[in-house]
């Protein structure tokens, strides 16, 4: 008998707080339904700013003020507080005081490498946490290599990937697929390659989607 599964493609970027929160909500829904064995997650790279500097990084608050020079920093911080509070409600620490800008291409390529070793989810989780909580500098290869080692992957292999263009085609394919699926904002969740939902969504929404798709596939939830 065919092993039926619900597939969920997640288009996201490492600097997107709502991607971090949306992923948490999806996994909470899966755990609540004991549906881990019937839901297959596919992480898809989506670069919010392909032209972001790969060399210099600045504090996120400074960057935000540069983007909106006429808006007082106090107002920017107040608006950000709403995002921080949303994260806190989910048990996520969004530390904007030390958060940095960065180019995410290398991290996405390393995630593709991690996938070939069965470590994609663990690597992605650690990058999200390090970026939003610990001030990870995505432009510093040493900091990314530290995460590579933390998940049990080969440092030298990863270093070669960073220095090359390996897995660039995989990232480019995700970009093409995002265009094909008309992804205009992230996070974007694509269920069974047919039904899309943008935004972080809440746990109940994900639970209902999984239940409906399980029923459609005639999959019995535990």
Give an overview in words.
- It is built from 9 helices and 4 strands.
- By secondary structure, it is an alpha+beta fold.
- The mean pLDDT is 96.
- The radius of gyration is 18 Å and the shape is globular.
- α1 (17-32) links the parallel β1 and β2 (39-45).
Write the layout of secondary structure elements.
Layout: E1 6-12, H1 17-32, E2 39-45, H2 60-67, H3 73-89, H4 105-116, H5 120-134, H6 141-150, H7 155-163, H8 168-180, E3 188-191, E4 195-198, H9 203-216
Parallel strand pairs: 1-2
Antiparallel strand pairs: 1-3, 3-4
Look at the structure and give the mean pLDDT. Answer: 96
Biggest sheet, open or closed, and with what strands and sense? 4 strands, mixed
The helix/strand order is EHEHHHHHHHEEH
In terms of per-residue confidence, which ranges show pLDDT below 50 for 5 or more consecutive residues?
none
Query: Please, how many helices?
Result: 9
Number of strands: 4
Shape: globular
Strand order of the largest sheet: 2-1-3-4
Q: Over all CA atoms, what is the radius of gyration?
A: 18 Å
Helix content: 40-55%
What is shown here, in short?
This protein has helices spanning 17-32, 60-67, 73-89, 105-116, 120-134, 141-150, 155-163, 168-180, 203-216, and strands at 6-12, 39-45, 188-191, 195-198. With 222 residues, it is of the alpha+beta class.
